[in-house]
Amino acid sequence: MAVTRRAFLTRIGQLGGYGAAFTFMQQLGLLPAMGVTHEQAKLRKVPGNGATVVILGGGIAGLISAYELGRLGYRCTLLEARDRVGGRNWTVRRGVKIEFTDGFTQNCEWEEGNYQNFGPGRLPSIHTTMLGYCRELNIPLEVEVNTSRCTLLQSDKLNGGAAVEQRRMINDTRGHVSELLAKSINKGALDQDLTSEDKERMLTFLREYGDLSHDFLFKGTDRSGFKIPPGAGKEDPTAIDPLPMHALLDADLWQGLLSEDAIDWQATMFQPVGGMDLIPKAFAKQLGDVIRYQADVQKIRHDHEGVTVTYLDCKTGQTVTIKADYCICNIPLPVLQTIDADFAPDVREVIAAGAYDSSSKIAWESRRFWEQDYNIYGGISYLRQPVEIVWYPSARMFTPTGIIVGGYADNESGTPFGDLRTVEAKISASRQAIELLHPGHGKELTRPLYVNWGKIPYALGGWLSDYSGKSIQRLLEPDGRIYFAGDYTSHLSGWQEGAALSAYRSMNQIGIEVEKKRPDPPFSSSAALS
Amino acid sequence: MAVTRRAFLTRIGQLGGYGAAFTFMQQLGLLPAMGVTHEQAKLRKVPGNGATVVILGGGIAGLISAYELGRLGYRCTLLEARDRVGGRNWTVRRGVKIEFTDGFTQNCEWEEGNYQNFGPGRLPSIHTTMLGYCRELNIPLEVEVNTSRCTLLQSDKLNGGAAVEQRRMINDTRGHVSELLAKSINKGALDQDLTSEDKERMLTFLREYGDLSHDFLFKGTDRSGFKIPPGAGKEDPTAIDPLPMHALLDADLWQGLLSEDAIDWQATMFQPVGGMDLIPKAFAKQLGDVIRYQADVQKIRHDHEGVTVTYLDCKTGQTVTIKADYCICNIPLPVLQTIDADFAPDVREVIAAGAYDSSSKIAWESRRFWEQDYNIYGGISYLRQPVEIVWYPSARMFTPTGIIVGGYADNESGTPFGDLRTVEAKISASRQAIELLHPGHGKELTRPLYVNWGKIPYALGGWLSDYSGKSIQRLLEPDGRIYFAGDYTSHLSGWQEGAALSAYRSMNQIGIEVEKKRPDPPFSSSAALS
What is the pTM for the complete model shown? Predict the structure, then answer.
């Protein structure tokens, strides 16, 4: 008996999403067997046949939902509380006002052309769903230099507190590690683990890997820089003296430095030319009046026939009610906690427990001293100070001024930076950190702006604190006809790609429901995946 | 007694160039104490007072010499054999003809906008002299992605000959090395070398560095990719299985892969937007009729009063003689060997012995399958095949077609690639290599062009074979009034920065001679370095 399409698809859905679907599609030869996501294949294009969907929140997940469902014949309405879409995808430029929930206000007065992405600032090349939309919507991209070896590291316990170049830390560490391993091998310590042939090959390899001397000692490497640089005179170049391994351990800078090895931080990285918000703006242009701006959701009710949402139209002061067959809820949990909704008890419990990090950035406008005086073009410096990160712009290199980030806290709570009680103190710590890395240049920093997502209305947080996803697993399934979408419901929390994948999941789930209502054609495997 | 300026400067010159000057200036606090070149400080601005200079060859060293000396009041004439300047800085576009010394001719028919730099293709951010000229001449630069973790590695001895992503090799290797070192430490093998405190800290560090399990084993890392990628379903992402260390050693790919750690290949790297030859073109525009094109030098004579150069004006067929007070010779040694010159015997000997590598590149025009199907944006793949390198373009990412380099031989002589007897065989090997990395895509490659610098007239080689500089040390000093400039007279052979530094050296040496002819003012240290 032929398996019905409905049963087949339900089974795929029940297998729990993209992991299973990915493996399945790999087996069907539909995807190259590579360790990266190929999610565009995962949006099933199920016609909506006029089914209505109300989408709550115009973050990336909400925008993609409205965009794709609209193209499939669903009739969508997107309710967005702000006068802009994008959610945490927010680019601040001259003229933008930043308002905190406690009333604190900042106005951006930077020069035309300068901007800061205060939410997402990177698009990895392996985030193919987001890159796919950039192509589709003709959003120009430029390389975001996430790793630059001229950047600096600063710890009071290293080099007398003076910053050292990242290339020294990376390459001296590898030299020391290689020397120690070669020493162990030569002592016979690994004779049980390596054949004698492998021992020889490991030693030969380690000598290259660590740039060791002929007798397997690490005496410094020019990968780390020069004492006597290569010139056009008689003197041979000489490598800079190596930093001792115990000093590198003392410095305790590895947590920052190893970030660049996370797969989502590896070259090649991108950013839109002119600001990350070009992405939501492009979606908004396509969606037109599908989006209702300044629509502040007040109440959500649902039953087996549909969803009813009541919102305050902040422009007119009127309360408006809208009914739809389905709802995709893209509201961040801290905000959702404040909305009057008749969720099931287990759903309500998960929402109530959803804690978000107070992530923040501080950005300054300055002459590009990091380029002109330090050869730093993009990339990140790390410090063991209350401010731990300085991030250099990849936008508009070689122009006179730019925006430099001094401080990017994943979560302010319980950290020395978060313990600084006033905005002034935080901004001062930011300037001090940049001064530590670039002595004499702290005074060039002007017009600081501080965004703490925990204090931004309609966000109330940067991202879900518990990244494992386990705490919100219930929300991967709908509550009746309400589907929850957003990066927090993915394994890519904090990434726009996670938001996109979650939107696909929700849309696919809705598609299964819509198909249930149709007559049941016989199943064929090729049709199943169209 | 006050040291005369002349004596002081002579002493600096005698110290052998930039190494000594750099240290000296560091001590005077004139330079940040960093391991990179700061060469702009090293061109002494000595007025020429109308002294005449004939410059032979319009490579980067010749162009910079003419440009700077002209600004200092010298009267320069630059003789360039070709109808273009730049030397090996050569960008091929639609309409350009490539002619070899044996008569073999190729015509470039690529689409408008596509190009290939067949000589230098990279500008490191630490090559501050060249970057300085790009700023000064308003040459727009873009990031040249030299390292991209989505690139591939292929060895018949690894993974059944199927290419693996670079990120796997890099990160799995580090995992294995970390595990082996942790094992050695835990066995007590390094108890003589590490304090017990350092042992503990090393172990903690190695666990992060190699992404080891709690018990210090390397079981794979998601830095290398995924078996189950992170999605928006219930399944947790799972790291890709690690490649075994002995397979990584078998693969023997490290020589290629470690190239990215050379200081001159480290991020951030640049290239001019639209082609490297924007640099010589910009100089040419500034120099105007200082440059005589198609001036093929035939004869060089010199004495204590000046230099006489005879050249063939290829446009008219006339022989022309020009006299000057000084000469800067920027002709590559293999070409200089063919010119009738009255060099001193020791100089003649060095020139005659100068051997150059036959370096080559092959470039194709193609749909950007590497971007669209492999997420590869810039960067380099490595193979253990006759063609060892595939280099992906950083120019015009996300456009439909691009130029991909399949094969970049440092020196063809004595290599499997060089042993391929015909151009067709080399081009075929290039296509095969790209096919090995990207199965099914070899057929998309079109319009191949092959440049072997050993066969290019007026070059006759890629760069000096002996990089140590020792073989040409005699040429760091003039022969009478003839000064030798070019990358081959620097410790940055093969780099435009080396050419620039060599030009500064020659100009500084000429400056000393010009000053000797002037009355001798008392010396003050601040004036010495102006």
Answer: 0.90
